[in-house]
Each structure stands twice: as structure tokens, then as C-alpha cells.
Fold this sequence. Notes:
By secondary structure, the protein is of the alpha+beta class. The chain has helices at residues 20-24, 39-50, 71-78, 82-87, 112-129, 142-149, 174-181, 189-192, and strands at residues 61-67, 93-100, 133-137, 155-164. Helix 2 (39-50) crosses helix 5 (112-129).
Amino acid sequence: MxxxxxxxxxxxxxxxxxxxxLVERFSPxxxxxxxxxxxxxxxxxxxxxxxxxxxxxxxxxRFIVARRGTEAFAEVHGAMLGFNQAWAxxxxxxxxxxxxxxxxxxxARPWARYDLGQAVAHLSVQAQHEGLHTHQMGxxxxxxxxxxxxxxxxxxxxxxxxxxxxxxxxxxxEALRERESAPRLRKPLSELVLVGE
Length: 197
């Protein structure tokens, strides 16, 4: 059994000092299928999302929280595609991230997806601080989730976040095992900052 227990080997090699949850954050696929996240910890993670900034403070994010072993979890997992479905069943929780893209009067909320992204980032950093790991996914059938949970018009399923405790890398399919141990790479700031230092 190979566990990712050496967090130091997964630490980001940053060019400037960052807070520990950001340095140690990575997106695992190997989760412990027996680990349970206590409800108060999930509440804390969601509270971090609640306090993210948003345009005009409209907070256009909504979440479906699906704990492993529930019908909601089975519905969300069943809507996943390809590799995501191969490993995400061992996560303790799947959170569907939803943007409210239209207000009650039918007006578009152009920043809703951006604001949702900020909320999910807050959620992810808080989860890391709690000793958990997150993995963001885009490979899923949004309409399947929409139908399963009866989502209203104006609510857009944008992503799914898996949350859990690190598990056995050897339990993953071979192609995913390779990804799990691949070096963590990022473009240099010189490619990302168009103007300024």
C-alpha cells in the first residue's frame, strides 16, 4: 500500500513565501474510502465559502453537499465522466458548485461564475487548513445533476469538488497512479503577469 504521507514531497516550490495551506495544497485522486468528515468540519469549510467576496455582495453561489454513502453522492458520482468516476467514489464528500447566473428579475449576473470560483477557492484553502484535500473536477454531465436535484433555471452547475483524506495510491488505475506522483509544475510569473512586476 502506498500512501501519500510525505506531504513535503508534494509541497509547491514557490518563488515567494506563501501560507502553509497554499504551499501544501494539491489535487489528489487517492482518497481513503473509509474516512468520514465530521459535519462540523464540513460546516466550517462551507462557512469559508460563505465569506468569499462577490460583486455587489450578491453571493451567487449554491452548493449540493453529498456525503459518501448517501443517495445524493450516488447521483453526483453517477453524473461524472471517465477518469473522474474511476476515483471519486472514495472521496468522503462531493460538493457540486453552482452559480446563480440570473437574478430573481431575470437579469444576468455576469460575475457569478467568477464569484463562485472565489467561494470554491476559499472552501479549498479552509479544507486544506483542516487537514483535508480537495480536487476540482469539470468532467461531468451537468444536465444529469440538474435533473437529479431539480435545479431551477438560472442555476448553472460549474464544477464538482471532491474532499477527503489521503488514501492508497496503489488502489488507483495505473494511468492515474502516474498522475498522482507526477511533478507539480506551474508557469513562471514572467509568463502570467502581462504588465508590471
